[in-house]
Design goal:
Blueprint: E1 11-16, H1 20-31, E2 36-39, E3 51-54, E4 57-60, E5 66-67, H2 71-76, H3 79-82, E6 84-86, E7 91-95, E8 98-102, H4 112-116, H5 123-138, H6 141-146, H7 152-158, H8 163-178, H9 187-199, E9 202-205, H10 211-218, E10 225-226, E11 231-235, E12 238-241, E13 246-254, H11 258-264, E14 273-283, E15 293-296, E16 305-308, H12 309-312, E17 322-329, H13 336-348, E18 356-368, E19 382-384, E20 387-389, H14 399-419
Helix pairs in contact: 1-10, 1-14, 7-9
Length: 420
């Protein structure tokens, strides 16, 4: 991708930020015949959805999954080209010194008896899961988004789930998705996520999560993408770069993360965000061969969830080795690696002592917080004449939310340019 040579004048649209929102905005503009430039400060596009290659391993920037039921992704992406590899539905929950299976009876009916008689919630809890599934799948996404809002925890309690089911399963499973263990995330976001999990598998592309922005970028003219191009400030339709150059355009779309958007646009408040630590280990052999998520239902240590990524997609690790991903919520856990290694030994025995730590990454702004009444999508992406804002921090903090926000911004730009 080009690093320099940004056209300074006679640009239709400049998009600041090459994450999923910015790329989807650019794709929609390009499809409509509107020329645009995408300015990305990092060394490649993708924003928070990136994959690095280390010693033959594919390391996503934090444990991430792609939900195949996302409507906007189905509309835009070529799933066959992504070569999606699915996780097994459900999870293995560590409780009472053993792993217990919680599975989706609609996709794995032969394993449902194990779920019914596991200590992760009561038999009645399992029936309430079925009732919850029917409720969220029977409504449209618009109806789910307009329902009265509370916290996820209060929604689960109101649905009648037992304390055991909430503490041993929902708090750790949803805590790993929302990156906060208190389940203070909006009940609307919970309904959306539960619907997506109910309607399709959780996956990763064979080439890593970075394959998603790479596919979006491949549909754009190469000269429209400029990486390592940091924006210093924005004034109306003038974009000042860090190198002192000024880029002019008929319209400017700010498609950065929320913290960067607040820096560039006075009046935009930086969203609260949820941090996470991700530890990747290279193992001589996997602790188990199943492509399934492992959850700590005992709250016995720093691990929230664990997954053998090479069991989901063998391409994540060199032949003969395994890649284990461990997630720890928050950014302040003292000496997280030591705590993680002790917990791994408790779970899998002394063999885990030989696992090589490939990366220990703290992502301070991994996900915008999704608190109730703090997720109001602006009525229009236009901030002022010729200036637009988009990103998952404005509404639904997900791949779906980022992609949809990018398209909405592009449609607003196209409409305004046509009127002008």
């Amino acid at each position: 991708m080009p690093r320099g040579g940004v056209r300074l004048e006679k640009n239709d649209v400049v998009i600041v930020g090459g994450g999923l929102a910015g790329l989807c905005c650019a794709r929609a503009l390009h499809a409509a015949g509107v020329e645009c430039l995408v300015l990305e400060a990092d060394d490649d596009v993708g924003g928070r959805v990136r994959t690095d290659h280390v010693e033959g391993f594919q390391l996503d920037r934090g444990f991430q999954v792609f939900l195949a039921a996302y409507p906007e992704a189905r509309r835009v992406l070529d799933y066959d080209a992504l070569d999606l590899r699915a996780f097994a539905p459900g999870a293995l929950v560590r409780f009472g010194g053993r792993f217990h299976r919680v599975t989706d009876p609609w996709r794995r009916p032969l394993q449902s008896l194990q779920t019914l008689f596991s200590p992760i919630g009561s038999f009645t809890d399992k029936l309430r899961v079925a009732r919850l599934r029917r409720r969220v799948c029977a409504s449209s996404l618009e109806e789910l988004e307009s329902r009265p809002e509370t916290t996820t925890l209060r929604s689960l309690q109101k649905a009648g789930f037992s304390e055991a089911m909430i503490e041993r399963f929902f708090r750790v499973f949803l805590g790993g998705i929302f990156l906060e263990p208190d389940l203070s995330t909006s009940s609307r976001m919970f309904d959306f996520v539960f619907r997506m999990f109910s309607q399709g598998p959780a996956c990763v592309p064979a080439a890593g999560m970075g394959a998603i922005p790479a596919q979006l970028a491949a549909a754009l003219p190469e000269e429209s993408l400029h990486v390592r191009t940091r924006v210093d400030s924005i004034s109306g339709s003038r974009v000042r770069l860090e190198n002192g150059e000024t880029v002019q355009a008929r319209a400017v779309v700010v498609a950065t993360a929320g913290q960067e958007a607040a820096r560039l646009l006075p009046g935009v408040q930086p969203p609260a965000s949820c941090p996470v630590q991700c530890l990747y280990f290279a193992a001589p052999s996997p602790p188990f061969d199943e492509p399934i998520l492992v959850l700590d239902g005992e709250d016995a240590g720093p691990i929230n969830n664990l997954c053998v990524m090479s069991a989901v997609a063998p391409t994540y690790a060199p032949q003969g080795r395994a890649l284990v991903s461990v997630s720890v919520l928050g950014s302040s856990a003292a000496n997280a690696e030591a705590g993680v290694r002790q917990q791994l030994q408790d779970w899998f025995g002394g063999a885990s002592r030989d696992w090589e730590l490939l990366r220990h990454q703290t992502i301070r702004h991994a996900l915008p917080a999704q608190l109730p009444k703090a997720r109001t999508m602006p009525p229009h992406p236009r901030v002022q004449s010729g200036l637009y804002l988009c990103g998952d921090h404005l509404g639904n903090a997900s791949i779906q939310g980022a992609m949809l926000a990018g398209r909405r911004a592009a449609e607003a730009v196209i409409e305004d340019l046509a009127g002008a």
